[in-house]
Amino acid sequence: MPKTAKTDSVTARALPRTALVIGLLAALLAASSVVGYRAMARTFHLELARDGYEALDLYGEMTRGWLNRYRMLAPIYARDPRVLAVLRDPSDAAARDDLQAEMEIWNVASGTSVTYLMNMTGMTVAASNESDSDSFKGMNYGFRPYFREAAEGRLGRFFGLGTRTRQRGYYFAAPVRDGDRTLGVMTVKIEVDALERDLRLSPYQVFLSDGSGVVILSGNPIFRLTTLAPIDPEDALRIATARQFDLSVITPAPITQIGSWLDNQLPVVRAPTDRSEVQTGAFLHLTEPMMAEGWTLHLLMDTTEVHHRLWYMVLLLLACGLAICATATVIWQRRQRLLEHLRVRERMQAVLEQRVLERTHDLSAVNQKLRSEVGERRAAEASLRQSQSELIQAGKLAALGQMSAALTHEFNQPLTAIRTYAENAAAFVDAGATEKARENLTRIQRLTERMAQLSRHLTRFARRSQDTVERVSLRDTLNETLALLQGRLERADAKVTITGNQDLWVLGGQVRLQHVMMNLVGNALDAVPEGRRPEIDIDITQDRDQIMLVVQDNGDGIAPEVLPRIFDPFFTTKDVGKGLGLGLSISFNIVKDFEGALRAENRPEGGARFTVSLQTAPALTQDAAE
Question: Range of 274's domain?
């Protein structure tokens, strides 16, 4: 068989094998994509559930702390001599009036709604709202569970609607003892509006249900006094007997289970979005029992972000798959061209061999040279493919390195602040300064909310941010910034001067604008060389609809060759390990998202000056204010 025919036969057999290899690669890619998608979905679901259970613990402690503020009021009031005097002699009108006046004072001091005293028949003999049209005085509440519990010598606890006011409230009741005898029951009623306002501030939808499944407390008004499941007949009888709720107006909660995550361990439900009775969304439904109260704490977490992240990963996998297919196609085409070249060379070789036989030995040398060129070309093709693979791998590693460095830089400052506030809170608790401790804990909460948004800042290098723009107080922003940097400022013995009107409002975002100011003030501290006391001036001016924040330092200024690149990503003049060159670049993009501008220049007298230009926020209308 001639060599040319043999080569064509080998090529024909190789084509099906090539198609088979490409098909196997495509199937492997599809299977890997499915496995990768499921693994990423499980990871995202676990992350969201972990955040939800941490939030549940936080709101459970907050609810228990709110109840504990009032738990001991009734037992304390029950020991007052004036209470015993009224129960010993109910006909003493002067003693009763004196006690009712004192009850009004107790209400104002403790923040409770009503304080009232009942005898052992359940009849109210004195009440702080005696002068009101819906006074409890003269009403018999012996049918209430809290009265029976207190009459038996225990602390009575009860949540329900007031029979007079029809307002929801929580009741604590304690027995009034005279030696070994129980003369009556002292009760305080607490309104739940304050707790629901705190729940309303949550980024999630938080509500509580009692043992019968009725939602008793909710940050979202839509869920209040609805039931999560049909009420058991025994529970319905108990509710009606205690007049706890009006069962005729209790409707099913607008929550429907539509699926589950993690092998049916985490239910996913459809429910109204916050403050909306029309729009609905998918939420992860997490619960935690509150054993002492017999309640269940519920948390609805929006799953939109998880779905978006999964879609982004699907698109990324598709892009990778297309890239792999394109690469395989290019390699296959090159292989085909190489085979064609080989076939041509082999045909030429056959011709040359024939000519060698017919002509001279010199043609044989030329034929050998052609064979050598074919080998060199094959080696060059192999080297090219190896170089291309190494370049692709290096590009992947570089992208991963940039993402890791950006996240490390962005989370360092909030984590340091959280640790500082946690230490301060512990010190204040030890010192008994609970208000100061609560203030630090509130700041920690804001910082954790901020950290959830920090990861999105890096995307502003490539696209415009979708975060909302709202009214922001400059005074609040500057106060929070200086509070977070207080430790650094004190260690550097820095002098910070703020001039201008701080009571102005701009269009922006509270957390993001604070992040910009922290970068500018922190860079101003770093710009002052050792041995010189840092002096930082923050000046606020207004020009029509523009507000300028000017941050100046007394450092050595910015080198002329550095100034044009000061806002470039990953450009820094700091030593290795002290900066990644992302702070000013991110700040520049944040201000740009606010439709403002950030510029840098040197001061004539020395030092650097950074000017942030922002739009003035419009004044609130009267309706909005109300």
Answer: 194-305
